[in-house]
Design brief:
This protein has 178 residues and is mainly α. It has one domain (2-172): Transmembrane di-heme cytochromes, Chain C (Fumarate Reductase Cytochrome B subunit), CATH 1.20.950. It is built from 6 helices and 2 strands. The protein has helices at 9-31, 39-62, 76-88, 99-120, 125-156, 163-166; strands spanning 2-5, 168-171. The protein has a two-stranded antiparallel sheet. Helix 1 (9-31) runs antiparallel to helix 2, helix 2 (39-62) packs across helix 4 and helix 4 (99-120) runs antiparallel to helix 5. The two termini are 18 Å apart. The protein binds protoporphyrin IX containing FE (2 copies). The site of one protoporphyrin IX containing FE (HEM) has 22 residues, from helix 1, helix 2, helix 4 and helix 5.
Length: 178
């Protein structure tokens, strides 16, 4: 099997900009004092993440092969089978997102607008608690995403993380993007 291109430049740029803006927003949100001017940056990074998501939704319809949401392997049965087989043995390899990363991506894409809206609507006690709870949900998803990447790297002896840098994975030539 050869190295094939699966993530085009827009997909990789989105990934790292999304990861960086969320890390910054979460980091400032939890660590900084909201009286500090730095807190303005918390909101700005949250707005940037939301803007990136809007661009990503367009890419999800008209983007490259594995950026399209229609390519996400997220049927519940497939996700469950994937999780079990990945835990007990090796599972089939996916050219684009695997069911684990696709499920995490869908949940992140739902949480970010929720965080954005609850951030804008900050003020009320209950909204404040919701915003914080959603932020913890996002932290948990990111942690699972990273554990999944580590597990895959160990199980398949494939440094999958590099795929989001070089755009390439091991696969069949017909599975490459144009
Ligand atoms: C705040 C941190 C992060 C967030 C929010 C995040 C988010 C995402 C999202 C949304 C996707 C789906 C991509 C798409 O379809 O457009 C994805 C996939 C991916 N991410 Fe991340 N990510 C983060 C950190 C990382 C890190 C640190 C690495 C590498 C060390 C990484 C490597 C990957 C890879 C390799 C994929 C593709 C998975 C596959 O081929 O099945 N991510 N990530
Ligand atoms: C989209 C990504 C976002 C994430 C991950 C996020 C995360 C967080 C976190 C972790 C906290 C600290 C919670 C706590 O310890 O009480 C926080 C607080 C806050 N966030 Fe966000 N947030 C996001 C977007 C926004 C946006 C877009 C706004 C406003 C435009 C906003 C406004 C606020 C405000 C006003 C606080 C309150 C500070 C306080 O009273 O302690 N957030 N957010």
């Amino acid at each position: 099997m050869n190295k094939i291109l699966v993530w085009d430049i827009p997909a990789r740029l989105f990934h790292w900009a999304f990861a960086a803006s969320l890390t910054a927003s979460i980091g400032i949100g939890f660590l900084a004092d909201d009286e500090q001017p730095l807190y303005q940056l918390h909101m700005i990074f949250g707005i940037v993440a939301m803007f990136l998501l809007v661009v990503r939704i367009v890419m999800g319809v008209v983007g490259s092969r594995y950026s399209r949401f229609s390519s996400y392997p997220v049927r519940p049965a497939e996700v469950v089978i994937y999780m079990i087989s990945e835990a007990v043995s090796k599972t089939k390899l996916y050219a684009g997102n695997n069911p684990g990363s696709a499920t995490a991506a869908v949940l992140m894409f739902l949480l970010v607008p929720t965080l954005f809206l609850s951030g804008i609507g900050y003020g009320g006690e209950s909204i404040e608690e919701l915003h914080e709870a959603f932020a913890w949900g996002l932290v948990a998803l990111i942690a699972m995403h990273l554990v999944g990447l580590g597990w895959h790297t160990f199980r398949h002896r494939e440094n999958i993380s590099l795929a989001m840098v070089t755009g390439k994975k091991t696969g069949k030539p017909e599975d490459a993007i144009a």
